[in-house]
Amino acid sequence: xxxxxxxxxxxxxxxxxxxxxxxxxxxxxxxxxxxxxxxxxxxxxxxxxxxxxxxxxxxxxxxxxxxxxxxxxxxxxxxxxxxxxxxxxxxxxxxxxxxxxxxxxxxxxxxxxxxxxxxxxxxxxxxxxxxxxxxxxxxxxxxxxxxxxxxxxxxxxxxxxxxxxxxxxxxxxxxxxxxxxxxxxxxxxxxxxxxxxxxxxxxxxxxxxxxxxxxxxxxxxxxxxxxxxxxxxxxxxxxxxxxxxxxxxxxxxxxxxxxxxxxxxxxxxxxxxxxxxxxxxxxxxxxxxxxxxxxxxxxxxxxxxxxxxxxxxxxxxxxxxxxxxxxxxxxxxxxxxxxxxxxxxxxxxxxxxxxxxxxxx
Amino acid sequence: xxxxxxxxxxxxxxxxxxxxxxxxxxxxxxxxxxxxxxxxxxxxxxxxxxxxxxxxxxxxxxxxxxxxxxxxxxxxxxxxxxxxxx
Lengths: 361, 86
Prior knowledge:
The structure holds two protein chains of two kinds.
Chain A: H1 3-14, E1 20-24, H2 56-69, E2 73-77, H3 87-96, E3 100-105, H4 112-120, E4 125-129, H5 135-142, H6 147-160, E5 165-170, H7 179-189, E6 193-197, H8 217-224, H9 240-243, E7 255-258, E8 263-265, E9 275-276, H10 282-287, H11 291-298, H12 306-309, H13 321-328, H14 336-360
Parallel strand pairs in A: 1-2, 1-7, 2-3, 3-4, 4-5, 5-6
Antiparallel strand pairs in A: 7-8, 8-9
Chain B: E1 2-5, E2 11-14, E3 17-22, E4 27-31, H1 33-41, E5 43-47, H2 48-59, H3 63-79, E6 83-85
Antiparallel strand pairs in B: 1-5, 1-6, 2-3, 3-4
């Protein structure tokens, strides 16, 4: 990052400007993915007014306020955001308020007409989740027959309309054997970026159901020992006093998430509600003195957390406040999966170093 | 000749500085206070000379330097295809 860009981000943090916003427009989805974190088992028809999705007027009022607060990067997400009949009304409104738009979708509802409307929005990127290199694997994970074919068609339509497309693939028990083929498929489809992740976000209903798809550490280690399309980067091994100065997640500083019911969260994973925009303005929620938010904002580096300060694995840790909250009941504490992953990262790093030394030798 | 920002360029003023995003290239441009002010003035109602005059007045800059800086910055914006002429 340039120093001016750094300085502007720092200013945004100091002034509590929510530069990056993730807005979940609905929890409804036309897929039923094995690992989904947001699955909402409630019958939406039975929800009270307080529990209902934000109306189009509430969403546009929020976007108006966010724009005035200085928010720039806006992700429209779901569920499947395009299930909302007013999706394009909301998206065009966001465009009119000069947001840099990114859209997360599963591609199931995109036809030629919608592809053209999406192109009119000039989004920065449209991201889809791709789980397999074949219908067999992808549809088994989405649990919707035909979803793989529809997704491919959506990507082709968006590319024909000059849009930038990104893919996200989560490594799971059900697809790890074909990651290379998934990566190659993305290249063939002409996508701009392909992100791989291996940690599955815990389901918001607390059922733990999504974690069943998670790959365990031995399988991940075996995977990363191969020649893979998403190789981990070498982590420079630092002495403890340096490693603990590593920057930590900036949740609650210049990033914010808003649920389809109006709850404001520090991020999509740390679902501790700061307030609800149905009851008060976003600004009132975001700017007020709040002991939780103040503490969250005061944590800048790993060494600011008691559990991390003297941890021998801190150099290899990629902890998440949200996962800590789910697993340990305390967003600031250590949790089992963070330790396991940090240990795995250390083993992988040793392997990378060994390979480098062999190549040099 | 009046100059204006290209349609659909997202941007925000952050305490007198600015972030500008080019959706086509995905690049994020950070602008300092002077650049951010020039960017704000690129609304189709101001020409280069007029913008340079405003920069000279508002930032108490040397007149020639203000004109040259404005010309150079606008030229960079044109190169990056962030602005168009009416």
